[in-house]
Every structure is written in structure tokens, then in C-alpha cells.
Amino acid sequence: MLKRLSTFFSAIRGLDYMQREFDRFAQELAKRRVTAQAGGGMVEVEVNGSMEVLRVTLAPELVAKGDGEMIEELVVSAVNQGLKKAKAAAQEAMREFAAEADPGGLADMMGQFEKELEEQAGE
């Protein structure tokens, strides 16, 4: 019984660690920035890893033309490209996080705990 409790509490400590690491990951992800352009650089957007558009820059010559419809289309295109890039960056960061996040074999500990519970139920 004490062994099972020890395994269980080790797993709980591991979950606590995972939560802290995930919080750190989310903060780091929000700091990541990607930029995307449309119209040959006439419109540029900056998006963070939390999928927030941080900045939209319009080239002065684009604004001077006064073609609202073209500006709208280019902004939409640049934002969509920026979001696509940010999503890809976030997915890559999540893969890295998942590869690094198993603290001391948490998955193995949880599996061992489940196995011990099954053995106890079979006794």
C-alpha cells in the first residue's frame, strides 16, 4: 500500500511540474513573433505565438493610392499568412515542449501506478 501511495504522490509531483512547465511554455510561445507580407511587401503583419496580430504596417505608397479595396485584400492576405506561420511555429514549439516535458518518466510512473491498482483489484 505504501509503495502505491509513494508512486501516486510521485506522479502528482510530476503533474505539478508539468503544469509549471506548460505555463512557462505558454509565456514563451506568446513571446515568439512571425511576420508575413502581401503585395510584395506593401502590407506587413506581425503575429505572436498566441495568434494575436500585433502590428499591421502599410507602405506609404499603398495608402497614397487610396485604393481601399486593394488595401483590404492585402491586409486580409497578410494576416492569414501571418496566422498560418504563427500556427506552424506554435506546433513546432509544442512538439519540442512535449519531447522535453516528461519529468523523470512521469508517463512511466503513471503506468506503474495503474498497473499496481490493477494488481490490487485482482487480489
Model description:
- The protein is of the alpha+beta class and about 120 residues long.
- The protein has a single domain (about 1-115), classed as Nucleoid-associated protein YbaB-like domain (Ybab, Chain: A).
- The chain has four helices and three strands; from the N terminus they run αβββααα.
- It has a three-stranded antiparallel sheet with strand order 1-2-3.
- Helix 1 (about 1-30) packs antiparallel against helix 4.
- The protein is rod-shaped.
- The mean pLDDT is about 80.
Strand content: 5-15%
What count of structural domains?
1
State the strand order across the main sheet. Answer: 1-2-3
Total strands: the figure is 3
The name of the CATH superfamily reads Nucleoid-associated protein YbaB-like domain
In short:
By secondary structure, this protein is of the alpha+beta class. The protein has a single domain, classed as Ybab, Chain: A.
List the helices and strands and how they pair.
Elements: H1 2-31, E1 33-38, E2 43-48, E3 53-58, H2 60-65, H3 68-100, H4 106-122
Antiparallel strand pairs: 1-2, 2-3
Helix pairs in contact: 1-4
Q: Which characteristics define this entry?
A:
123 residues, alpha+beta, Ybab, Chain: A, three-stranded antiparallel sheet, 4 helices, 3 strands
